[in-house]
Write a structure and sequence with these properties.
By secondary structure, the protein is of the alpha/beta class. 32% of the residues lie in helices and 23% in strands. The chain has one domain: Rossmann fold (3-Layer(aba) Sandwich), CATH 3.40.50.150. β3, α5 and β4 (115-118) form a beta-alpha-beta unit.
Length: 299
């Protein structure tokens, strides 16, 4: 089992931030190719009206018809296009070249409109602010926040882009869930308070590991025995650190929820909760596996 290394990079310096971004860009490029190799005709899925969002984010997003939605760290665009299926005017941002190329092709081939930009999220937020762009909703989900080394700059950056009354929405894996290995052994801290966590085996083929149970577009065997040659750099954040970053940016917290089920099978042994969702196996004391937040910009 690969052991992480802590504190190798300092995202508070320009050099450290560039090293984080470049390393993760390379690691995500390789992982994204493996991930999409397991998913069948995704364009057809969306052409036929498919939507892969879960009920948690659907409930928080509400009626997005005609609203501008900025999806930060959008990966290959499947969730972005799902929001567009509901009438949202969507723009997705991601650091991975492979992911954005795929998202653009998926949008074109499915006929579901979306705009996608390959960029470091911090750089893009600063540039969009200079262009005086404004959005009704800023959205991110499921493993986005752990790639951020600076929550303050992130929250201030997208808050500037929200229209008065605009909302930030996220559904995320709970930091308590991330303390445990796939066998439920307690291996990791609740928060590293922004200290970097470097994984030499990089971003894994978790789509291949999850298998057909989490691929509503259809399953392909795809890449086998994937090994990522590029290390990846994460950051541990506690729930209070995320909430504080939002409040300090001037947002008003509207809702917060914690869930004892998860929209991914994060441990080897779990019970089915509903379609594409799992909860703790029998005999394990329950603890939260996901959380959601909704915050509004006053005005």
């Amino acid at each position: 089992m690969v052991e992480p290394r802590y504190g190798e990079l300092d995202p508070s310096t320009p050099e450290g931030r560039r090293a984080v971004g470049e390393g993760n860009r390379l690691s995500w490029n390789e992982a994204t190719k493996a991930h999409n190799s397991h998913k069948a005709d995704q364009a057809r899925y969306f052409r036929e009206g498919g939507n892969k969002l879960y009920e948690e984010e659907l409930g928080l997003l509400g009626d997005v018809n005609g609203k501008s939605v900025l999806h930060l760290q959008c990966n290959s665009g499947q969730d972005t296009i799902s929001i567009a299926q509901m009438g949202g005017i969507v723009t997705g941002i991601d650091i991975s070249d492979e992911a954005i190329d795929f998202a653009r092709k998926l949008s074109a081939d499915s006929g579901v409109p979306g705009t996608f930009h390959r960029a470091d999220v911090y750089d893009w937020l600063a540039e969009a602010s200079e262009r005086d762009e404004r959005w009704d909703i800023v959205f991110c989900s499921y493993g986005a926040i752990i790639w951020l080394g600076d929550l303050t700059t992130w929250a201030n950056g997208f808050t500037k882009l929200l229209k008065p009354g605009g909302r930030f929405i996220t559904v995320e894996f709970h930091p308590v869930e991330m303390m445990f290995e796939i066998d439920y052994s307690h291996r990791y801290p609740y928060s590293t308070h922004g200290t970097s966590i470097t994984w030499d085996d990089g971003i894994l083929d978790y789509v291949g590991e999850f298998g057909p149970r989490d691929t509503p577009t259809g399953w392909l065997d795809g890449v086998q025995n994937f090994e990522n040659p590029h290390p990846a750099h994460e950051f541990g954040w506690g729930l209070s650190e995320v909430v504080t970053a939002l409040l300090d940016a001037g947002l008003v917290l509207e809702s917060m929820a914690e869930y004892e089920h998860c929209n991914a099978k994060v441990y080897k042994e779990m019970k089915q909760f509903r379609e594409r969702s799992w909860t703790h196996k029998d005999g394990v004391p329950k603890f939260p596996l996901m959380y959601s937040l909704s915050a509004r910009k006053p005005g």
